[in-house]
């Protein structure tokens, strides 16, 4: 199944089931409804279809508009470690992104006026279905509600202000997330799905999920050891090699650019770039 978050014609946020080019509203009529809450309720697949909308008639929201946590993993492909001149420390590099930085499929990414090195980073996102602490790797896949496409765009000059990631990852409107949550039963083999990023149709990143240094079960186990994962929390699993900073000459996003991040059957996230007003 595929689920997405959107606004009804009256502007009320809700969520629905995507079937072809139609979206069936699964929220409570007349009220704001959230996909995160439905996941926590544990009966998402049993909800009754409500009003149907044409997909191209609704305003999409980020897949989970209000996650309690967004945990991002850095340096999780060997190719990216090499191009950044870093080393594999043996443990995941974890930083946080805030929910108010997210934009939906089709919405613009905003290049901040405070910096110039606005870089693309296509990633696989994991959405937690059943949370907990100290989740064993053997149980981790059973805790997943679904997968989505994530664009963890980065302001590289801000990342180099000091030895941290947070400011360069949290400017408003810099994190693409969508278009839909895809449940695990829709994916025969996660490892063969390729993370591909295209900038103005040029293929810039292309690696299979199987190349992750720390795979999805390992990330869930590690993250749940230091924080309680909750339904609707998001883990962005890291970007492959090919980022703009690692190229000679460097390539950074600018206003008017079109960026597509595709991950096999999970879908394609498309955003254009605009300058901050």
Produce a short descriptive summary.
With 277 residues, the chain is mostly beta strands.
Topology:
Elements: E1 2-7, E2 13-19, E3 22-25, H1 35-41, E4 52-54, E5 59-60, E6 70-74, H2 78-83, E7 93-96, E8 102-103, E9 109-111, E10 118-119, E11 122-128, H3 137-140, E12 144-152, E13 154-155, H4 156-159, E14 175-182, E15 194-199, E16 202-208, H5 216-226, E17 234-236, E18 258-263, E19 267-275
Parallel strand pairs: 6-17, 8-14, 9-19
Antiparallel strand pairs: 1-2, 1-5, 1-14, 2-3, 3-4, 6-7, 10-13, 11-12, 11-17, 12-14, 15-16, 15-18, 18-19
How would you describe this protein?
- Residues 69-273 form the Fumarylacetoacetase-like C-terminal domain.
- It comes from Caenibius tardaugens NBRC 16725.
- InterPro entries: FAH, Fumarylacetoacetase-like_C, Fumarylacetoacetase_C_sf.
- This protein has 277 residues and is mainly β.
- The chain folds into two domains: 2-59, no CATH class; 70-275, Fumarylacetoacetase-like, C-terminal domain (Fumarylacetoacetate hydrolase, domain 2, Alpha-Beta Complex), CATH 3.90.850.
- Helices cover 12% and strands 34% of the residues.
- The chain has five helices and 19 strands.
- It has helices spanning 35-41, 78-83, 137-140, 156-159, 216-226, and strands spanning 2-7, 13-19, 22-25, 52-54, 59-60, 70-74, 93-96, 102-103, 109-111, 118-119, 122-128, 144-152, 154-155, 175-182, 194-199, 202-208, 234-236, 258-263, 267-275.
- Strands 1, 2, 3, 4, 5, 6, 7, 8, 11, 12, 14 and 17 form a twelve-stranded mixed β-sheet that branches. Strands 9-19-18-15-16 form a five-stranded mixed β-sheet, with no helix packed on it.
- Strand 15 (194-199) and strand 16 form a beta hairpin.
- It is globular.
- The N and C termini lie far apart (38 Å).
